[in-house]
Design brief:
Layout: H1 5-12, H2 16-23, H3 31-43, H4 52-55, E1 62-67, H5 73-89, E2 92-97, H6 102-112, E3 119-122, H7 132-139, E4 144-147, E5 157-161, H8 163-176, E6 182-186, H9 192-207, E7 217-219, H10 224-236, E8 243-246, H11 249-261, E9 271-275, E10 289-292, H12 295-312, H13 315-319, E11 321-324, E12 327-329
Parallel strand pairs: 1-2, 1-3, 3-4, 4-5, 5-11, 6-7, 6-8, 8-9, 9-10
Antiparallel strand pairs: 10-12
């Protein structure tokens, strides 16, 4: 049962108007009374609807986009796609960054329970077992669409690419270029997109009769310095890899830095391919071979699904999954 202002007033033996003003931090209410009201509201997990009185159940005109980061070119392009739809609809886009921190993500989504936004587009930072806050928001019937990184246990709309196929395609490309010791640089063991890409990598190796060497599957972190040290370590091994699949953009570009510092030549000593929508991939030295997602189109499709749900309460839109193809763009890093 949800806690209301009326219940708080009854339990504290206060007038409803007094509780309402206290929660708004009105100067008309004493500091002592405010303290009592705030403490009890927190104890009862009361979530005020900050917009109820002014909006009278009308829309806020805001949608939230929750992202793990914006340094990755995929998310920057996806935001452009989202905004292209939001502007057509007369909505404001509010960007929230989790910095790959599930606790930060939970705090952000908890804030949405007060009615701050009409709908949410999210690319999750957590993985398996870190999704109770997402379930809670969905239970409150706030429309939500996942894009790129989805919570697979939740039956909300999703806009994805076939990450298994991408991992398979990237690895097969390196095999065709003569690589036999191919390293897979993972970001997180709990993220579904990384898991699917890794499974594609492993299946491609098996298909060509190459044993899966778990020592070549390397778990990096969100800290650039730590990841640099982890990647450098595998290249200092006498059986260093001759090919690298970077599961996310920053791991592919970090591989370039490591190879440069160790005087390893790309692609002669090691061939590199990465999942990236980086517009300057063709300008890197050497130019980077990529598995490129249609980031702008994915953002636009995700926003279209969200607005379809908002405008018409469309049940099909609320549960629909769209899978878009990625493209392998060969450049000098694998030639």
């Amino acid at each position: 049962m949800s806690v209301t202002i009326r219940k708080i007033a009854t339990d504290l033996n206060l007038a409803v108007s007094t509780v309402s003003k206290a929660l708004r931090d009105s100067h008309e209410i004493s500091a002592e009374t405010k303290k009592r009201v705030f403490a009890y509201a927190e104890q009862m997990d009361y979530i005020p609807n900050l917009y109820a009185s002014s909006l009278k159940r009308k829309k806020t005109g805001n949608i939230a986009v929750v992202l793990p980061e914006v340094a990755d070119s995929f998310f920057s392009l996806a935001i452009n796609g989202i905004e292209s739809v939001a502007q057509e609809k007369g909505y404001h886009v509010m960007i929230y960054l989790t910095h790959e921190n599930p606790d930060k993500e939970e705090s952000i989504l908890r804030d949405f329970r007060s009615g701050r936004v009409d709908g949410v587009l999210i690319s999750v930072s957590g993985g398996a077992g870190a999704d109770s806050h997402i379930h809670d928001l969905c239970a409150r019937r706030i429309p939500m669409v996942f894009f790129d990184r989805a919570c697979e246990s939740i039956g909300a709309a999703k806009v994805l690419t076939d990450d298994f196929e991408g991992g398979y395609k990237a690895t097969t490309h390196l095999i065709e270029k003569g690589c036999r010791r191919i390293s897979f640089l993972a970001l997180s063991e709990t993220l579904a997109i990384i898991s699917h890409r890794q499974h594609g990598y492993e299946e491609a190796l098996r298909h060509d009769g190459i044993p899966v060497d778990k020592n070549l599957i390397v778990n990096c972190t969100n800290d650039e310095r730590e990841s640099y040290a982890i990647i450098k370590k595998i290249f200092l091994d006498e059986n260093r890899p001759d090919g690298v699949v970077g599961s996310v953009e920053k791991l592919a570009t970090l591989t370039y830095s490591v190879c440069r510092d160790l005087n390893l030549h790309v692609p002669r000593d090691v061939k590199v391919i990465g999942f990236s929508s980086l517009s300057i991939a063709a300008l890197l030295n050497p130019s980077l071979t990529t598995i490129t997602q249609p980031a702008f189109e994915m953002g636009r499709a995700a926003a279209t699904l969200l607005f379809s749900s908002l405008e018409r309460n469309n049940q099909d839109a609320q549960c629909r999954t769209i899978v878009m193809p990625s493209v392998l763009i060969e450049r000098d890093s694998t030639r």
